Amino acid sequence: MRKLIERPGIAGNVKAGNIYGQLGQLVHALEQKDLPTEVVTLIDNEIENLNSTSDSNKNFAASVKKTENKIVQLVEKKLKIVPRNYYKKLWFLLGMSAFGLPLGAAIGLSVENIGLLGIGLPIGMGIGFVFGSSLDQKALKEGRQLDFEVKY
Predict the structure, then answer these.
(1) What are phi and psi of 145, to 5 degrees?
(2) Which of 100, 116, 128, 151 is 20 to 30 Å from 27 at the Cα level?
């Protein structure tokens, strides 16, 4: 697997440095897994594209984050390998929108006080949190979880 190039120019940009360091951790975690050649080739292409980008570019942090997201989505889609807390974060948001809003609307309409719409959001967050946590535990037991967490 290709390596990220050293970028001494991003030392002054804390945000870009943190995101770039996180991408390095992702690459290192992926190196610990036995990945198929086609997936490694696709990851190498993404890293090569980023390595060819200048770190003086003002959108460098966004480019790094975009590369990281592409790699995480690629590995999740092709191999079902995910970072720690991947499903928890995903279902936390889905719980709010898919369960919380409709539930809040139903409660608000049933008591004829639409101001209660917001009461469904924490209920949906709780449902999403529990469901996502169970999926993360399942991924850990099956060995499909990386020793890496997306923080930035």
Answers:
(1) -110, 135
(2) 128
State which H helix or E strand residue 99 sits in: none
Rounded to the nearest integer, the mean pLDDT of the chain is 93
In order of 48, 50, 95, 134, the CA distances from 3 in angstroms are 9, 11, 37, 33
Task: Find all residues with CB under 8 Å of 75, minimum gap 6, and list them.
Answer: 30, 35, 39, 43, 81, 82, 146
Of 124, 126, 118, the closest CA to residue 99 belongs to: 124
The tens digit of pLDDT for each residue in 4-37 reads 998 887 877 888 889 999 999 999 999 999 999 9
As a residue count, the chain comes to 152
Residue 2 to residue 78: CA distance in whole angstroms: 19
* Statement: the pTM of the whole predicted model exceeds 0.70: yes
> At 82, is the secondary structure helix, strand, or coil?
strand
List b or e across 95-127, with b for residues whose CB sees 16 or more CB atoms inside 10 angstroms: bbeebbeebbeebbeeeeeeebbeebbebbbeb
